[in-house]
Specification:
With 131 residues, the protein is α+β, with helices and mostly antiparallel strands. It has three helices and seven strands. A hairpin with a 3-residue loop joins strand 4 and strand 5.
Length: 131
């Protein structure tokens, strides 16, 4: 585990049964990634406003093992980063307050030029953070 982030599941994350709506797992993944960036001295705000690159998600997946319910305190773990020339994959695991694995998944981010939106090699500033 490279980083962990605690979050309380709120009603607005859930469906009518009080279980998270399936796509909201990505909110938790992304919140964890933003907190990890902050811990590394970077912020998404700075990257979005000043960097000459962007990092759109080009692939995502999630698996659900146990229900995540309103009021649960969950811990989202960044388990690994897998880097390629132009992209990186972040693997996540989500645990409940009993330390039981509830979900897992990943997001793949590709580096693109802000000017022409073409694929570029991972920028040095990003490589420094990921390695």
């Amino acid at each position: 585990m490279l980083f962990k982030y605690k979050k309380t599941v709120r009603l607005y994350h859930c469906d009518i049964l009080g279980v998270i709506f399936f796509s909201n797992i990505y909110l938790f993944f992304h919140d964890c990634l933003e907190e990890w960036l902050s811990a590394k001295g970077q912020t998404l705000k700075t990257i979005l406003r000043t960097a000459d690159f962007m990092l759109p998600i080009v692939h995502s997946e999630a698996d659900y093992y146990l229900p995540i319910k309103v009021g649960d305190v969950i811990t989202v773990h960044i388990v690994s980063f897998i880097t390629q020339t132009h992209s990186f994959k972040v693997k996540y695991e989500v645990y409940n307050n009993e330390n039981r694995l509830c979900a897992g998944g990943s997001t793949v981010h590709v580096a693109v030029s802000r000017q022409n939106r073409s694929k570029i090699k991972l920028p040095a500033v990003l490589k420094k953070i990921l390695y």
